[in-house]
Amino acid sequence: MADRSVPALPPRFERPGLLAFVLWVAAGALFVSALRGTGFSATEFFHGIPNIVRIVGEMFPPSPDRLAKVGWALLETFQMALVGTAAGVALSLPLAILATRHLTPHPVFYHAARALIALFRTVPDLVWALIFVVAVGLGPFAGTLAIMIDKIGFCGRFFAEAMEEADRNPQEALRAIGAGRVSVIAAAVLPAALPSMVNTSLFSLEKATRSSVVLGLVGAGGIGIELQVSMELFRYAEASTIIIAIFALVIAVERFSAWLRRRMI
Amino acid sequence: MTSPRMETALPHASEIAALKARYPQIYAAEQRRKLKQFAVAAAIAAFVGYCFWWIGMGWDRFFAGLGKLGWLFQFLFPPSSGGWFTYFLTGMGETLAMAFLGTMLAALAAIPLGFLAARNIVSNRVFHFGIRRSLDGFRGVDALIWALVFVSAVGLGPFAGVMALALSDVGTLSKLFSEAIENVEREQGEGVRAAGASSLLETRFSVVPQVLPVFVSNVLYYFESNTRSATVLGVVGAGGIGLALADRIRINDWDQVCFIVIMILITVSIIDVLSRSLREKLVGKQPLPV
After folding, report:
1. B97, B119, B117: which is closest to B109 by C-alpha?
2. Cα A50 from Cα A56, distance rounded (Å)
3. Domain containing residue A179
4. A15: in domain
5. Can you give the C-alpha Rg of chain B in angstroms?
6. How many contacts does A have with B, using Cβ atoms within 8 A?
């Protein structure tokens, strides 16, 4: 018989295991309850569509009315990102050394530094901006400090990781000939971790540019406030100019950092 | 361990001088390269310095700002909900729902877009370039800006936030999906084809099983990151805990600010841990898609 010589084929479709099945059902249930929780209704969505079409229609062509003002705001945005990142990178270095397990002077410093980094990282930058607007007043300085805090958290974590992953042998060699902690860090740890740290710094500049764009929404300087004013006055053609300008800035910074990364690493 | 070569490996200063005199063109090229590097570095440093000056970031202002921050800190403790605990909890739930729904909608839209943007599925170059650049357009603009647009379009509330998160993630997820699709192994497809499958069936039985874990892991990571983004969308009126937080900061209710921030920290870390363990089960330890 032919069918006896052919071994049974495995089923074409794998049946999900119990855990996977439960997870899929749970995800589905969560999806439905989230739809209800956010008031997401198909009718509202379809009622919104003509509005969206109207707004997008008014956005084109983008109006060049306040191009000079937008240009200056864009420059301020980039300056906030650059200064915030530079200060954040500089300040995160000592913090990262404290947060590196084998370089920290004492476990107390290690845990304190880790906790500080976690706090800086998890609180969103816009919240830092809100807080700094209260602390130092409206304007780009508040935004710069917010970016700096956010970048201390980001770079602190990744710098510490890079230093922990650095090759231990040169460090041991230096220690064996009597080098102190500072010398070991300066002559063995930093050179080994530098490429990864440069990469992290450039990446955080890209991230800072993205976030500096929105900090203006809470009055912390930059182009965000221009966008909000245009949106609230229903000047959608102006708003689209600003959105395009933001997009151009983000892409330009990405290209620049890719170029610098190729040159430096 | 000293080898005899180590002493001879380093040339003496006089030897270097002699070499320099003999091969000036080699050393000149090296010097030109160094000079150029120095010029680029100096230009960048000068621009950074100029920006510091322009923003007005001096030591005095910097320390004054940090001092003010420290002064604010004393009002944070003890954190208190001020009787608004259920309101905050609802806000947090709304934030999570927005993040979940936004990510899901983005993922659903990104699956067909990812296939269309993958070079090995649609090989037309003009089409590929067009779709990739338009995806970049969604990617380059922050969710908060889309939120501003959607608040004008569909009104205040979490619905605007969901749409904003979905739109800003469609670009990124589609790009990641299409890269995953471009990285599949060809052999499996050839095997399926040899068994007589059409190209649609080949995609279903060779591409999809290879990319599905990557897709799910990316989606989980973006859910994680959207939970963070969704906490601030309320600042522009797009739903979630952000509205309560921004209000409390503006009216100086710092103990409640602290309470909300702690709620955010706890929620975000729970989501982080859950999603990380799920992702590790799916694809093993991998560097994060950023």
Report:
1. B117
2. 10
3. 67-264
4. no
5. 28
6. 163
Q: What is the DSSP letter of B185?
A: -
The CATH number for B99's domain is 1.10.3720.10
The answer to whether residue B1 is domain-embedded is no
Range of the domain at B49: 13-57
Residues B176 and B251 in one domain: yes
Is the ipTM, as predicted for this complex, more than 0.90? no
- Determine, yes or no, domain membership for A193: yes
**B41 and B123 fall within a common domain:** no
In a domain, B191, yes or no: yes
Does A196 reside within a domain? yes
* Distance spanning both ends of chain B, measured CA to CA: 45
Contacts of A134 in chain B (CB under 8 A): 72, 249-250, 252
User: How near does any CA of chain A get to the CA of B137, in Å?
Assistant: 7
Q: Are A99 and A112 in contact (CB under 8 A)?
A: no
Among the partner-chain residues A38, A145, A246, the one whose CB lies closest to the CB of B97 is A38
3-state secondary structure chain A: CHHHHCCCCCCCCCCCCHHHHHHHHHHHHHHHHHHHHCCCCHHHHHHHHHHHHHHHHHHCCCCCCCHHHHHHHHHHHHHHHHHHHHHHHHHHHHHHHHCCCCCCCCHHHHHHHHHHHHHHHHCCHHHHHHHHHHHHCCCHHHHHHHHHHHHHHHHHHHHHHHHHHCCHHHHHHHHHCCCCHHHHHHHHHHHHHHHHHHHHHHHHHHHHHHHHHHHHHHCCCCCHHHHHHHHHCCCHHHHHHHHHHHHHHHHHHHHHHHHHHHHHC
CB contact under 8 A, A80 and B98: no
Split into its structural domains, chain B has a count of 2
Contacts of B4 (CB under 8 A, 6+ apart): none
Cβ within 8 Å, pair B98-A214? no
Tens-digit pLDDT profile for residues A235-256: 888 888 888 888 888 888 888 8
pLDDT bin (cut points 50, 70, 90) of residue A1 is very low
Kindly tell me the sign of the dihedral angle through the C-alpha atoms of B178, B182, B187, B192. Answer: positive
Q: What is the mean pLDDT of chain A?
A: 84
With respect to residue B34, please indicate whether it lies within any of the assigned structural domains.
yes
Q: What is the pLDDT of residues B65-116, one digit of tens each?
A: 778 878 877 777 787 777 788 888 888 888 888 888 889 889 999 888 888 8
Model confidence over B259-277: pLDDT tens digits? 888 888 888 888 888 888 8
Do B164 and B48 belong together in one domain? no
**Are residue B211 and residue B265 in the same domain, yes or no?**
yes
- Is the CB of residue A35 less than 8 Å away from at least one CB of chain B? yes
CA torsion through residues B246, B251, B256, B262, sign: positive
Domain count, chain A: 1
